[in-house]
## 1
Amino acid sequence: MLFPTVLAPLPTPFDAGLLPDSARLVNLGRRLADRGVGLVPFGTTGEGPSLSFHEKRSLLDAMAKAELTGPSTIVGAGSCVADEVVALSHHAIRLGCGGVLLLPPFYFKGVTEDGLFAFFARAIDRILAAPQGERLRVYLYNFPRQSGVAVTASLVTRLARAYPAIIAGIKDSSGDLDTLLAVGRACPDVALLTGQARLLPALNQAVGARAGCISGYANLVDPTDAAGTDHIRAALAGRPATVAIKAALAILEDDPAWAIVRPPLAELDETAVAAIRTALRV
């Protein structure tokens, strides 16, 4: 892989008016990049589905100005609207990002593999036809518990065979190691990124340098240090992941604004925050 083994899905900071705060995002991105961590804005932890295309583009521009849109940045560009996938992917390419992370279109359920293939293929074809389109690298995002639509090993394999070198990897947040390994066997050039750092050793053993993780814990600690993350896992267990990570970041940064989330998400109550503070030993 051309990017770090560990990437952080950046939380999106908001101000009191629930508008994105580019300065806080850039400051966090710089700190993580200085630690050698890759960056993934606008994913699940970044509340990507709650951000408009224009907000994402503006935040990405701020990251580019801070020189945070290089090969180690993969942009969450998934949307149910193909035009938005194409437009944000184009912008990420122009800014020098290493790839885009694409959720399946997630509103309609029970769709066929052929339908999902057609959606991705249409978007990819349009991106490839644009200037610099050949630089496109796609990382498919499988998180069926959240999206309600699975990105199967069969679908990844079909797309990888149709678009060799363009389908660069899969990020799996289902915790299903078998799905990742099935992709690895069928697609020897595709990177396998897990959302659970605990699976990284098994992935490393199976596919070597193609293994990596995109872990929300990377915003707080090194997620590959099992001993060092035990107290973080205990603190956040049983709470909505995005909300809990932002609450923990607010505590560690001594900056309450980091805890702000956009509806329909809601901030943790004082009792939960106190429990996290105690577990973090802050």
## 2
Amino acid sequence: MPNKPFYSSEQFWKILKQEAEQVAAKEPMLASYIHACVINHHNFESSLSFILSNKLSDDVMPAIAVREMFEEAYMLNPGIVDSAIVDIQAVVNRDPAVSLFLTVLIHFKGFHALQIHRLANYMWHKGRTDLSLFIQSRNSIASGVDIHPAAKIGKGVMLDHATGIVIGETTVVEDNVSILQNVTLGGTGNEQGDRHPKIRQGVMIGSGAKILGNIEIGEGSKVGAGSVVLIDVPCCVTVVGVPAKIVGKPDCSMPCESMKQNVLDDEAAR
């Protein structure tokens, strides 16, 4: 779970508005933008739907139509909003360059891509598959992240930098996982059925890693940058290489939170 306490939507919104007001006062060039994105809204859901709908819309699909989809999803499945709050907390807890919830909400495309996927996933399970695929396509164009609408992604997930992340249809990413840029969670061919990775809690996947096939990355494990993983990875180990092999153990139970990239530190812990 996140290191900081879980906030209700109302508590989180109060903190977020305070941050927005402080930043708007400090940086006049951003004041109107921050008012439009945050301060002018009455709750977190309204602010989030405004930001995401403007990112997702295009000349054919106007922002107001997209926003109606987000508002429906948030009303009928409030767990989506709760997950967004936990996702923001996860980024602030794990990224030393971030100190404000506001920064994640208005600037971080990895966060945006994940929240847009939550809408696509909601529509997918309502049987509106064509619409969900449209959302996936627009998300890929807007954020550089391609997540199939059927992929199952938990809360407390950080897509760090995010560019080039690809997540396939039958992928499962559990709660509290960190994934860096250019990661692929993909298949190994044109096979049908359950064919994508299962990423368990606490995992950190380094930049450029490729995890292919219906395999499992065990809870609390770490995948080193640039690795190609083709077989199951046990719990609480570090794997690296092409093909990936076990080189040691992480020095903590939740690599997703420590975000330590140097696998040589783990090798010394063998």
## 3
Amino acid sequence: MASTRDIRRRIKSVKSTAQITKAMQLVAAAKMKKAQDQAANGRPYAELLNKVLVSLKDCVEEGVHPYFSEGKGDKTLVLVIAADKGLCGALNTNLLKKLVSTQIEGEVDYVTIGKKAVQGITRLRRNLIADFPIKDPAKFAEVRVVGRFIQEKFRSGEYKKALVVFNNFINTVTVTPTVEQILPVNPVTLGGKRNFGHAIETPSTAAGSEYTFEPDAATVFESVLPQYVNDTIFQMVLESRASEHSSRMVAMKNATDNAKQMVKDLSLEYNKLRQAAITNELLEITTAKMALE
């Protein structure tokens, strides 16, 4: 059984840990609010752009742009977006589990954002061809480099499609590991509440007529589709960052609450031992007095 001195040391240690986790919780909460707002503000634009392009995909002629059809290659390119740091619960572990459980045919090459993604892909012994460190908060200029890299690889004819694995932010306590196809153009769900599976119903599509492009469809798509890929990847990074800070805030809050409960339990044990020691001393004094009498 531990002595009262050992228990006092443990109480002091747990209190120190609770102060650290409380500070980390407050920092994560501040970052979480900014990340959530940034992710929520970017969703309407990403949603509308995706809906328009998914609708146009069914209306334009085949071969108008390579982003509307699978590539000629047999391999698949997968972008994995994870956190740079730990202490955020099972966020990164669940993302890797989702990646492992996803059935992808043929040979697969990986591109990563985040140190935890690099560590996970290396541990799984997968073929990692590029890593892009993105600072926090994420900036579009940095993410655009990733988008250009993926587009170049896809247009080279080496890959038939490109997928993105990321944490889809639903709310503070709910994060969903998600796999989305970004190339060729495909319905993408962001925020867990949107369904892009149906084309936009417009008078043109309802009547069966075609869209009119100026100067021509190829020129329009050559300008719009690269922007679509870059913006969609940027939004996925924002969703992942919001998920990371939310998960870290929740994890640190749970750690702080557990530490406080542990202090209560240790204090109770300490008081019991102290009371038992006092009782023993009183018994010894009483016994000695009775013996002298």
## 4
Amino acid sequence: MSLLELLGDIESRERVLRRVAELCSGRVLDVATGSGYLARKIPGRVVCLDIDASRVARIGDVVVGDARRMPFRSESFDVVAAWSALAHIAEWREAVAEMFRVARRLVITAEPRGKLALLAFRDFRCEHELSVEEVAAEFERYARVEVKNYSCFTVLTGRKRTG
């Protein structure tokens, strides 16, 4: 099986990417921006957060910082989104907690679906094996969660519970 087959064809990934970007409105934070794959599709202004300044795409406002300890006040963003970010963060639960802390209403992540897709992403410095079921359970601690599977990605959407 080729890397392309593991990650899904480009057209399928683009469709999923557009679906995620369509959910992003208001003030948006893109976590672990990297090359800006997601940030480029988000309409309007986006703040890009990444731990490595040398690889951050210059899209919108760029903040160099750790997803596990974000340099933002609570509820600073309407939407916090990530594209294959948690698969790159060993302490991903800390990142999820921070994503919900700085989000006002919605947290979205698209993660590689299945072990084969995750193995393909390991070539891109993945820190660990990530179980989408574990991520969904972690999201449940903070929000009502919707899980949708697409080709080789799973999109998790957490709508924060209101008081």
